Every structure is written in structure tokens, then in C-alpha cells.
Amino acid sequence: MRLRNNPKAYEIMNENSDFVVIEPENLKNNWKDIFDNDRPIYIEIGMGKGDFIFQNACNYPDINFIGIEKYPSVLAAAINKIKQKEKKVTNLRLMHYDAIELEKVFSENEVDKIFLNFSDPWPKSRHAKRRLTSNKFLDVYRKILVDDGVIEFKTDNRSLFEYSLISLNQYPMDLEYVSLDLHNSPENESNIMTEYERKFCTKGPIYKLVARYRKNG
User: Fold this and answer.
1) Rounded distance, CA 118 to CA 195, Å?
2) pLDDT digits (tens, 9 = 90+) for 143-196
3) Looking at residue 173, which CATH number applies to its domain?
4) Residue 83 placed within a domain
5) What is the β-pairing status of strands 173-179 and 111-117?
6) 208 labelled binding-site residue
7) Within a domain: residue 1?
8) I need a surface site. Which of 17, 21, 49, 126 has the fewest CB within 10 A?
9) Is residue 4 in a domain?
């Protein structure tokens, strides 16, 4: 998700350092310090305007959530939106970072779950390595996830979904859930939608998978 460039994006981040992590590399293997607890850590890569990660933080106060966004202007929009919420949460942090470098931010076995919601499909074959479910990124996820860590993935792009199933199958992972039409399945009752999802779910099916790394796999 991209927005028009916001020249004040970094200024907005710095002004909200109470819930925006400015230098996340300093917290590698020490995220418990910023949350002041050692509860499970769930991260969303490509958080957009933050609707999904904020609602999760509200619904699950015993889990620590980190929203990660590559584009500064998008993160700035999320910060402003979350600040306007009446409900305040203490188990949520945001940061500007590129997912391919997350090993600089998280140690091995430091993350319990990764959410990938409506990632850019990068439809051209020559751009496949940029997809967030390519081997290039899955190698990073495997290192930072706990041994039985989970990846949850949603998309409205059938080709990306099929590509992701193939990519995940190359790793020691068990597919715990696969849906070709999430919004017409019983599991949709507990589904938390992203802003993009609310806008486009009426135009076609939403695909979802949940995959878990096998312990010592």
C-alpha cells in the first residue's frame, strides 16, 4: 500500500516514540523490555494504515503486537489514525522497516506469529523474489520464528495464493488451515479485516492459509 509522499513522515514517527520504535535494532532479543513483559510477539509485515494490528491488540491484550511498514508515508498515516482511536492499548508498537532485514531486529526464536495481509503480488515473474512469500523472505521468517511459529496469510490474488502454497511447501511446515473463500466460511466469524479487505471483499473471494513450522523439522 502506498500513499502520496508525506514530507513530515519521519517527524510524525519521532513525535510518537511512545508507541513508534525509532531504532528497533537496539531491541533485538530485548523486546520484553519495551513491552515490560515476556508475552508472545506477533508481527504484521506490511501493516498499511494499521486497522488489523490495532484491532488485534485490542482483542488480545495478553499478546504483544508489532506493526511493520516499509513506506514512511503509510506508517505516518497509520500513526495518525491510531492516535485518533478512543481506546488506547499498551501492547502495540509500530516501526518503519524492510522485512528482508528483520534479522537485524529480531533474534532467532523471538517471534511467535507473522501476519501477511494483502501483500503486493508482484505479478511479473522477474519480480517474484520481491513477494513476501518468496524463499528470500521465508528464509528470514524461519530464522526469527519460534520452532512451532505460525504464518497467517490473506490475499485476494489467486495467483499469489497458489505461489505462496508452493513456496511454503518447500519448508518444514504444516498447513493448518486453507480457505479459498474465507468470507463464506465458518472461520470468518473470528476474522479481523484490514481496511483493504473491507473495500474489496465484495469483488471476489478472499484466500487464507495458516502454516506452522514443525518443531525440529
Assistant:
1) 10
2) 999 999 999 999 999 999 999 999 999 999 999 999 999 999 998 889 999 999
3) 3.40.50.150
4) yes
5) unpaired
6) no
7) no
8) 126
9) no
The set of long-range contacts for 38-42, using a CB threshold of 8 Å and a minimum separation of 24, is 39/63, 39/64, 39/91, 40/64, 40/112, 40/113, 41/65, 41/66, 41/106, 41/110, 41/111, 41/112, 41/113, 42/66, 42/111, 42/112, 42/113, 42/114, 42/115
Q: Is residue 155 part of a domain?
A: yes
Active site residue 181: no
Question: Has residue 2 got a pLDDT over 80?
Answer: no
Distance CA 102, CA 140 (A): 7
Query: Among 78, 99, 209, 74, which Cα is nearest to 155's?
Result: 209
Among residues 18, 62, 120, 181, the one annotated as catalytic is 120
pTM tops 0.70, yes or no: yes
| Domain housing 143 | 9-213
CA atoms within 13 A on the CB side of 101: 9
Amino acid at 138: L
Average pLDDT, the chain: 94
Q: Count of domains in the chain? A: 1
Is 181 annotated among the ligand-binding residues? no
Tell whether the torsion through CA atoms of 169, 173, 179 and 183 is positive or negative.
negative
Over residues 88-139, the pLDDT tens digits come to 999 999 999 999 999 999 999 999 999 999 999 999 999 999 999 999 999 9
Task: Flag whether 156 is marked binding.
Answer: yes
The answer to whether 15 is annotated as binding is: no
